[in-house]
Amino acid sequence: MSSMRIVESSQEMVRACRQAAHPLGLVPTMGALHQGHLDLVRRARRENDTVAVSIFVNPAQFGAGEDLSKYPRDLDRDLDLLQRENTDLVFVPGPEDVYPPGFDTWVDMGSLADKLEGAHRPGHFRGVATVVTKLFNLARPERAYFGQKDGQQTVVVRRFVRDLAMGLEVVVVPTVREPDGLALSSRNVYLTPEQRRAAPVIYRAIRRAEESWRAGERDAATLRQQIRQVLEAEPLVEGIDYVSAADGESLEELEGAGPGTMLSTAVLLGQVRLIDNVILE
Ligand code: AMP
């Protein structure tokens, strides 16, 4: 097994990526790695000469009162998992490296950032867009890998990469799920056993609408209503932030669903906020 290099400063990351064999594939993560992350790494491994993974819990994408301080962290385990996937470079910067004193430049997304997740997490996508841009500038990857699980994030990243001519390929990898359908997420560890048993309702609700789309239902309001009905039947679902049937690029809510429509939802199981989505084919 070849040796994996761990890089802790931006300067060193720039140097390491300049010297590395290209194409280079970058996988941005916040750590607490699971099989969903590892699928991105494997895909990057197949498609590139160098695979770089970043692990950075980005304070700028957490709102006040969100789970920044208790976000799960296990660097030793993460490094072990990445080593097994033949990762070449792991970038583990501290917050003061990414946001040194005087840091004052932000990537300000337009209307895409105000919808869905953005409507409930003000500033979230500004934080995401800024840190991902910075990672791209440090690593200069030919390809970057993102999970469909964070559906709006893939749309936002594709948009700023195109709008700002970043000249790299954004690769979106299908959502990895537990056998019962629950999308893998670092936040699943917060669930109590009862909540964990109830959590597959999220994917089941979206699938219900997807199936009625397959059976010919084209009315987006009906699809949204079907998702909501399944969610509301689960007592442990204590809140529904949104249920959406939106255009897969503009994220505008639709009247009629079609191929490329993104069905998505964000729900609260107790304090735990989980998201999921499906793109209609
Ligand atoms: P995070 O560490 O949560 O920021 O996630 C890092 C990357 O892994 C993002 O591109 C996520 O969309 C992706 N990811 C997270 N969970 C999954 C999953 N269950 N399946 C596929 N990709 C995922």
Short description:
This protein has 10 helices and 9 strands. By secondary structure, it is of the alpha/beta class.
Would you kindly provide a written description of the structure presented here, covering whatever features stand out?
With 281 residues, the chain is α/β, with parallel strands linked by helices. It contains ten helices and nine strands. It has a six-stranded parallel beta sheet, sandwiched between helices. Strands 7-8-9 form a three-stranded antiparallel beta sheet. Strand 5, helix 7 (151-163) and strand 6 (169-173) form a beta-alpha-beta unit. Adenosine monophosphate binds next to helix 2 and strand 5.
SSE sequence, one letter per element: EHEHEHEHHHEHEHHHEEE
Residues in helix, %:
25-40%
- Computed over alpha carbons, the radius of gyration is 19 Å
Strand order of the largest sheet: 1-4-3-2-5-6
Oligomer: single chain
Mean pLDDT: 97
Number of extended strands: 9
Number of helices: 10
Largest sheet: 6 strands, parallel
Low-confidence stretches: none
Gap from first CA to last CA: 40 Å
Beta-strand share of residues: 15-25%
What class do helices, strands and sheet pairing give? alpha/beta
Name the hetero compounds present. adenosine monophosphate
Characteristics of this structure?
single chain; 281 residues; alpha/beta; 3-stranded antiparallel beta sheet; 10 helices; 19% strand; binds adenosine monophosphate
